[in-house]
Amino acid sequence: MDLGIAGRKAIVCAASKGLGRACAHSLAREGVEVTIIARHEEALKAAAEEIGGATGSRVTAVAGDVTRPEDRERLLEACPSPDILVNNCGGPPPGDFRDWTRDDWISALDANMLTAIELIKATVDGMIERRFGRIVNITSSAVKAPIDILGLSNGARAGLTGFVAGVSRKTVRHNVTINNLLPGPFDTDRLNATIEAGAKSSGRSLEEIRAERSAAVPAGRFGYPEELGEACAFLCGRHAGFITGQNLLLDGGGFPGTL
After folding, report:
1. Total-model pTM
2. To pair with 132 at 20 to 30 A between CA atoms, which of 158, 171, 198, 211?
3. What are the strands, taking DSSP E only, across the chain?
4. Residue 85 clears pLDDT 90, i.e. is over it
């Protein structure tokens, strides 16, 4: 399917690896000019070169922390009129809510709620003027099925979800949609880090923990980042203009409900 977005311009956050990189690659393959940002410059530049080489699209790398206002400003200078915005930011650490301070909460809200809102605020009016815009926020399956040790993430991402539910109904009449992707267990560095932590705390092997966790997914495996990238690209496409304010769950069947 031709998604009809060749020549469009996109910003993709946290795109040096994992889910963000997969989204950037899928968009670039559709002919989109992509500007990517991540904190680690070497990995980011390597990702830009590899994506550009594989797709033939222009990929611009902006090294920085998207939660910092000055780095967001540099990002928007590099791509001042994006047609597509993919918000993405690593989640806060797990733990017990009794141990979290106000600063912990503020940090989580800043990274996983307020930064996305600031980028939406900075780009949405231009999209409305041009009568085309696609905004996709990568959140978490924990928004739909909260995980007790991920309280910081549950709270911050749920706040973003509530915000999107309101504003997305206002922008869609201008052909500007805002949706959320809710990934479950995808085979990324973050997932591997949690497996390593579980193995270390339990004294069990990495292989045993990994096999146990993947078997618990109804699909019998972890998700491939490319699968989320393709879902993101479709939501950013010309044919997705009637989809807005939605939360697309990609968890291999893990959520047990009907809705």
Report:
1. 0.96
2. 158
3. 9-13, 33-38, 59-63, 84-87, 133-138, 176-183, 247-250
4. yes
